[in-house]
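We modelled the chain as a single entity of 261 amino acids. Its sequence is:
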Amino acid sequence: MSESKPRVEAIILGSGTSHGVPMIGCKCKVCTSDDPQDQRSRPSAFVRTGNVGVLIDTGPDLRSQCLANGVDHLDAVLFTHHHADHVAGLDDLRRFNWITRRAVDLYGSERTLANIKRMFRYAFEAASDSPHDRPQFNLHTIDHQAFEIEGERIVPIPILHGKLPVLGFRFGDFAYCTDCSHIPDESMALLQGLDVLVLEAIRHTPHPAHFNLEQAVEAAQQIRARQTYFTHIAHQIGHAEVSENLPDGIELAYDGLRITV
């Protein structure tokens, strides 16, 4: 008998880049678009696998993303890497301390967690006179080995963001890989047999640390997931215009997109 795979539900909380869309001070046609799918907050996702709900990254728009998408409980946070657009909303996790009455479990590479501790030093210092002035965390270092959260298996996917090693994550037949400029052969093997892949496609022109649209399409066609959604999208890409010309089985993600595997 084949092993049953967990049902996976995902919400793309934010589908934009580090600046978000619209960008401050920009009057381009995408930044001034009235298409709600051109409104992109900073990159993040919420994934429920089995009975476990995990947040991927805590960008600066975390509070508004949780409110917009009804995220009011989580069991853990997974970090792809430590750049500001992926961690700057960390303090908003204080609210989940109140909801769950316990510390929030954070999972990331040794380098990522070290940088988070440096960037949010106050959260890891000894408590002051006020017990409510800082979030409470439990840190869990992960590497390239699969791990479990409350019995649910998660597979880290090592990828490169320019020269920086970062992590994507696979949950059953769903995988999320953002801030990606290269996928090593070993990681390509970990992405086979997917039902849904979320992958980065930042813009049309090349970028030294991110897949552009052409590279993302090429990678998606090599991985051959049943359905691929592109995320981490900059203001050079208009949702409606680009969507018309994507190959079958590939679509642009957008804030609030809900995916069921």
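As a brief sanity check on the tokenised model: The chain has one domain: 8-252. The helical segments are 62-69, 84-87, 94-100, 110-119, 185-190, 213-223, 239-243.
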